[in-house]
Amino acid sequence: MEELYGGMEGGGTKFVCAVGTGLGEIIDETRFPTTTPDETLDRAIVFFKKYTLTAIGLAPFGPLELNQDSPAFGSIASTPKSGWSHADILGRFRAHFNLPMAFDLDVNAAAFGEYHWLPKNRRLFSLVYITIGTGIGAGVIVNGKVVHGLTHPEAGHMRLPHDRHKDPFPGICPFHGDCFEGLANGPAIGKRWGQPADTLPEDHPAWDLEADYIAHAVSNIIYMLSPQRIVLGGGVMERLQLFPLIRLKVREILNDYIASPTMTGSMSGYILPPGLGKRSAILGAMAMAKYLTK
Amino acid sequence: MEELYGGMEGGGTKFVCAVGTGLGEIIDETRFPTTTPDETLDRAIVFFKKYTLTAIGLAPFGPLELNQDSPAFGSIASTPKSGWSHADILGRFRAHFNLPMAFDLDVNAAAFGEYHWLPKNRRLFSLVYITIGTGIGAGVIVNGKVVHGLTHPEAGHMRLPHDRHKDPFPGICPFHGDCFEGLANGPAIGKRWGQPADTLPEDHPAWDLEADYIAHAVSNIIYMLSPQRIVLGGGVMERLQLFPLIRLKVREILNDYIASPTMTGSMSGYILPPGLGKRSAILGAMAMAKYLTK
What is the pLDDT of residue A261? Predict the structure, then answer.
């Protein structure tokens, strides 16, 4: 009998749980709204109890406590999401399952999923996955491993050039105003233009400005890490017309400074939508269960 | 007899070569100006030939070709430094020494040196070394390894917020104008204020502005990588009064967003001058020879 792995993608509005044999082979899946930690995690646990699993990968929204030496390891840190501050995700699962478990941020799971999605002979050793939706975050893979540090990266809060003549919008981040997330997440687009981002037509100037901020963030990531691939996912990036705009602007910003054929070419194989579509994080959570719990 | 390792730090104005048994134990050292590749590398080779070495670590200025699958691996890429474009550093050494050799960028060697300088029981798994002098660059250690990607990081060319009301100086980077390096390297300070940076008094407003740009770059690096330590070296950072200013500004920029005691504290143990002083790169090159050639 093939081994079964469980994966949980715990988002701020909905949870997805899946069971399968690996990337792309899912035998059961469920999704439900994020309510209280008690109710939401119990629903996930009841779902996984139906199966004899080898391991579980847990990938909730952050910020998370990922320091294994901390007594709070496995829990959510302080979050504005009501009721979820300090919710002990891993502890609750451990009370129900005597199984190896992996625990990481949802966007890190998505990066890990995109990393594992490539066939072994084409595997990259470094990759950055950026989600641009209600929030903005990035998962970073270096040498095949998800990057953690003191905490986890929070690339959505990078500061970028903000030309207030061109874009007087002050940004909406409660901590930083006009950081990347404050200028470019879905709610910022909606507030800047006075209508929800998803109702803006394709030829609205919103998208050129959006591509500008994303291109600056992507360029900074290239300068900092020189990753082999940059994957852009999340709700905002479902506007696929952003991709060619972003590639063009990244090339303009880099201005042929980095003498790599990838950086001076079309970048159409470099800055990409997720290979796993909207399923990078849930499939990545399963990949975490399969590959990171040995 | 103890094993001897050679290290070469090849800068744009001078080369340093050293032989020793490891970090901090140097038995011979020489330094000479950077002239032509032929003359400069021959001087280095003649120096190393005096010893029976176990391995050599080569850490020249960049940009470098670090892709081991490339026929140009081991050489300098296109550089404005006259005569040095495509100089084959590693090939020239291989023609003279049948020894294991490590090859990486000078700033990566400095990062590796700072990483190895800590005693094993206090070793960090992630660290960023930023040099701020005539140029600006960063070496990144993640999980104990120097980060490479498509090429090597070029963090000096990150774009930062630039308030042209406060600082109308357009920047001096020939590729990007007002990138981090264009706004904040030594020559930029000199040009902005009309006198060489090293002649500016300690209370000159130049230093507050300089700390501002450095703090924004450091904050972006924290957001992107969450490193366990940030080391700031190079000529500009010899102005030690910059350190408390930078720490204060980083805290202001982060605004307690990252709930780590390190990020909400004084940062006096987090943003630091090099433990190895001006010798991070040469000692790092020797550490590369010792630890990366096995």
Answer: 86
Candidate from A138, A154, A219 with C-beta closest to B159: A219
Q: Is the dihedral of CA A209, A80, A137, A5 positive or negative?
A: negative
Put simply, the answer to whether B152 touches A216 (Cβ < 8 Å) is no
Chain B CA closest to residue A253? B176
Compare CB distances from B223 to A155, A162, A263 and report the shortest one's residue.
Answer: A155
Chain B contacts of A157, Cβ < 8 Å?
Answer: 223, 257
Is A7 a residue whose pLDDT tops 80? yes
Is residue B99 scored above 90 in pLDDT?
yes
Query: CA-CA distance, B136 to B116, in Å (whole number)?
Result: 22
Contact state of B221 with A219 under an 8 Å Cβ cutoff: no
Q: Give B51's contacts (C-beta < 8 A, 6+ positions apart).
A: B4, B6, B19, B28
pTM for the model: 0.95
Give the separation between CA A261 and CA A193, rounded to whole angstroms. 38
Q: What is the pLDDT of residue B268?
A: 94
pLDDT value of residue B183: 98
- For A146-178, the pLDDT digits (tens) are 999 999 999 999 999 999 999 999 999 999 999
Report the pLDDT averaged over residues B167-193: 97
> Who contacts B248 (Cβ-Cβ below 8 Å, separation ≥6)?
none
pLDDT number for residue A260: 85
Residues near B170 by Cβ (< 8 Å), separated by ≥ 6?
Answer: B177, B178
**Which chain B residues contact residue A226 at CB under 8 A?**
147-154
Give B57: exposed, middle or buried? Use CB within 10 Å, 0-12, 13-18, 19+. buried
Q: Which of B70, B132, B101, B99 is nearest to B271 (CA)?
A: B132
Residues in chain A within 8 Å Cβ distance of B174: none
Helix (H, G, I), strand (E, B) or coil at B74: coil
What are the CB-based long-range contacts (under 8 Å, 24+) for A234-238?
A: A234/A130, A234/A131, A234/A132, A234/A133, A234/A136, A235/A132, A235/A133, A235/A134, A235/A186, A235/A197, A235/A198, A236/A132, A236/A133, A236/A184, A236/A185, A236/A186, A236/A189, A236/A197, A236/A210, A237/A131, A237/A132, A237/A133, A237/A273
